[in-house]
Amino acid sequence: MLTSTIVDLQLWFASQLDGASFNVAEEGHPWTNVSWYQHSHKSSLFNSETNSGQFMFITLLGAHSFLQSQSPDPNDIWVVFVDVDAAPNQDWGAMESIVVVPAEFLKGLSGEGDTGTGPTSLFPWWLPDQLRWKGELAWFLGIALGLPPQPPGNTNDLMSEGFLYYPDTALNDDHKTLLNDHDMIAMSYRAVTYARTYSFPGFGSSLENGSFESGLNPWVFTTDGSGTAFVDYLGHLSPNSLIITMNDDDSNTQLSQNDIELKPDTEYFLSFAAYSEKGRDLNVSLASDSSPSNNYGITLSQTRFDLKPYWDVYLLRFTTQGFDLPVEDGKLLFRMVNSDIDNDRRFYLDEIMLTEIVRGDYVSMAHPEFPPRNLKASLLSNTEVRLSWDPGQTNSYGPILTLAYFIHRNGEYIGVTTTNSFEDKTVLAGSYYDYEVRTVNRAGLELIDPAEVSVFTLPPGNRLMNGGFEEGGIYWGLAKDKIVEPGYIGDKSASICLRGTGSETLLYQNSFDLYLGVYYRLSFHARSSLGDDIRVLVHEGLPEMPVELTTEWQYYDYLFSKPENSPVTWNSHLLIRVGQDPRPWQCYEFDDIILEPVIVPEDEPLDPPTSLSSSMGSESLVCLTWKAPANNPGGVEYIVYRDETEIGRTVSKKYIDHGLDLSQLYEYTVVATDPFGRISQASTVHQVATPDSPIDGVNLVQNGGFEGGMFPWKSEALRAYAAALDPVEGLSCGRIHFPIVPKKASFWQSRVVLEHETQYHLSFFARSNRAKNDEMILDVTAPAGSFVGIPYGPYSFGIDEHSIDVSTDWQAYFISFDTPSSFFGGESTTLSFSFEELSGLLGSYSLDQVFLVRDGEIENHAWAP
What we know:
865 residues; mainly beta; Jelly Rolls; Immunoglobulin-like; 6 domains; six-stranded antiparallel beta sheet; 52 strands; 40% strand
């Protein structure tokens, strides 16, 4: 309100005077900028004064006293904005839109003396000339500039008495003439600006002229080179600063102040604003001004500040030493360090304060800071903690006098910061810490009311022992015959082979701890010879989860947390349940089982998926694949977009899109989301072009859509037929029915011609009419034969007992495989869908759009836009 009023007045004068306006204080004045001071105080006068006028005036005098704004210069006009709540059960108190100007400071800039006269109707009961409403600020400014009052009733004139309709007023021609001749009216007027914080040079400091508003004195500059020191109008928060130039690499360049009064064994903080255009170092010492000197708490060899190439505030907290009684011979010395080979290097210094630390509460009238709010602790790693908070002030103007924040850990001071965050990189993994953040202001008051937070640093590494089985079956209760070579990650892995009869086998490990409020990720690699399911659980952590294995090694991860209100689990256990359901003989393999704590990301964005690519399975089906975000925490879900429209979500790094039209160019992107609510940027765009027409001969499977009946498909122990019941595409699909429970059944097509050492893609749609029909096994085999008179049996030619799960809804499947190197051709391979014993249960499977294509074959016929 105050700032906008003064700025508006400047602009209003400029609009009336063809671009000219009144100026603010001359360069070098410590109060050029509009600043804010705010505190919470319950004054005894608040309830005892009989009216709001008295109370506001007394509050005003207290504010001016605190701000040191009693200026002897008659040309100074001080404007104070007062916002005071009304006392309980009273209607008076300052209103939040009042600007109060004491008449004793409204001295005419033209030297006319006290001009504190004007409307009196607002405060007839108490010194009416000493309080003015906001709307009258322009009226008083006009008087200070020498404009004569106008008769009552001229409400469109700036200087009319009575109620002022500012800004809907105007200057008359006589007023414009007077103002244009005034020394304080100019075309190049200095504009009012905001101050970032409230600054009162030297307040509470043991130093003199710390902001160089009075020039260099009493600071002493020395150099054995050719450097210089001078004061210029390039201050940090106040107008002035000291600029030191260095022209010799080896020069001993120093700035010092002597005769500093210090108390013994007392905590102080040194603060200063500084920067160097080339980021040079700065050493500081505090010692006696004698020879030999006596260290008073800061030594040159132990205190070095690495200056940034922009303004920043640097702080040092220390305890005086080396004397038992108060001294007056302290010497603060800054030594500029420079190894740059270039000449004319500059250091900028401002707002140097050396202040005794005093502890008090936040209701002190003289020191109105509040403790920080919303203090949070987050983990950057097992040995790094980040603290963050909001400033203590709750009003819209933010903290006013706060200089810095002192950080305490387990009762000990560990650091200081001028920002709203702090990183502690000296903690140990697996430990509890209690932090306090205390506000310290420019007067040296450290609040005894801190913000507090506790944090547990994560224990290091894998909570499980021997997760890669490199030490055999130890810690897992596995016999030697359950450890096989080679492993998927290392040299060994665990293998459990069994014939399911309804019982189960457990892979487990006990005796690890889970801590409250910590996220954990369970990850492992696994496969099954028939792609059967397993179940995993972590006691008092991860509930039992089904895991759908495949016949190929796959990576699985699960993210879970210990709630903050749950107790620490000192003896948890991991269970992997194998073979719960009746199944044929098969083997389950596991490797690289890891249970590790996960850092909860705070400000770090989730990286986008990478390496988005595609493979066409038919003219209308494409399989997209990608890599996980680089900072994947586990539990990531992916959103797939086609032409900027969401088409599906998946937790795998693969998505099959079908039903594409011919002669089209599609654009795909993938976005990642994680359990912490982060959403990544989209991946790079990947384009897919479909052919302009169906491609003859590209499908190596004959009659894959069953439009020609069942030929050349064959079956064993099954009743197979073409059905017109809800096909995926076309008029029919393949139906495979189990009239009885068979011991072994299969459905195949032979004489499929494949080349060796070539990649192929098999895609198809499948479903079952019963939820129990959840397994289908795929094989691509070469026929039996003989070589130099030695017979051999059928062998795998790319797919070996690959298991898929089938549901009651149509699902698309896409399987890539490489044919082996062979002396024998693949002119007569067999593609088979088989069903092991007990898998049919009198149900049926449906197949449709079976496509087998060589990698890149569809893309070679893609439509070019």
